[in-house]
Amino acid sequence: MSSVRGRSAAGTVALWLDLQDTVVERRRLRQLSAMSATGRIAGARLGPRTAVATARQVCDALRPLHDRTGGRQGTVVLTLPSSPVLASPAPDAAELVCGAASLADRVDRPNQVVALPANGAGVSAMEVLLGRGLPVHLATCFSARRYEQAAAAYLASLTRAHADGRDLAPLASTVAFGLRPLDVRIDALLDQAGGEEAKALRGTAALLAARLAQRASARLFDPRTSPSWEALAAAGARPLRLVWTELGDLAPVGGAQAGYAAELGAADTTLAVPAEALDAAEGLRPGPARSDQGVGAQADHFEACLRWFGIRTEEVVRELEGEPVDVAFAVSSRNRSLVAGGVS
């Protein structure tokens, strides 16, 4: 899933190769093996059309990296295949647990994790699967609130596993945090609202949400501020890592790092990028750590401004994460997005 390039004294920017929309052929398998061996990538995300035999081969290609780094890299994310049950608007936690456990049993590799939706059902299923010893990748989250819910479930599961005397390192899990889709939706609503005040708010939602999630992660998984995490970390537990995804254009503009990746490419960050963006992403270098001081106040002010325009970020997020939304808002949001040329 990610590049080990961009090394500095402070850490690395890791790149996960996102193959969710790709049929993995034999040539690609050779490339994956070579890229993981040379440090170009640290893992991969596979799509729902990937055959079990191919998923095993991808896991095997990245297994040496997984073994060499003690499981910190070389992970392969498996996506649940389409089925009548899982294709329903909102599969429940039990259905997700059944599908994920079945897929994990069929692929059966130590460096696999199974992707679950980053909604309420997915978080509930995550806790059950961790209890069975299966690590999880939640995809895709669009709010700090959802990340904190997932972190609470993760910490509860690790605490129980620790009490049972189990090894915690193999339970290391991740949360994909999407950026571009949130800005597309919010910006479309702002365009429909019109005016210079609305225009000034464009391109703000996603990075603010990401910084709030970063702040939550730092607070929950810092042994200096969390005694409960200190005990778990000492027992080998690893934080619930954020993986930034759906980053938009990664090509440098005027020689500078562009967009979300430039803002979030700090030390020990993980970015999930499609194959065509890998070369551009490899140019990223860890930037200085950003202070989260004042980010809460900025987010509160931004939300107040959006509400003044009748825009409710929480409903946009619920829609993106596959949760039920207020019917009146959903219709209004869809109509506005279509008028403004946004994504519906």
User: What Rg do the Cα atoms give?
Assistant: 20 Å
Q: What is the helical fraction, as a range of percent?
A: 40-55%
Contiguous low-pLDDT stretches (5 residues minimum) are 1-10, 252-257, 327-344
Helix and strand succession?
EHEHEHEHEHEHHHHEHEHHHH
Class based on secondary structure composition and strand pairing: alpha/beta
Features:
344 residues, eight-stranded parallel beta barrel, globular, disordered N terminus, disordered C terminus
Structural commentary:
The structure is a single chain. The two termini are 29 Å apart. Mean pLDDT is 83; it is low at 1-10, 252-257 and 327-344. By secondary structure, the protein is of the alpha/beta class. The protein has 14 helices and eight strands. Helix content is 48%, strand content 12%.
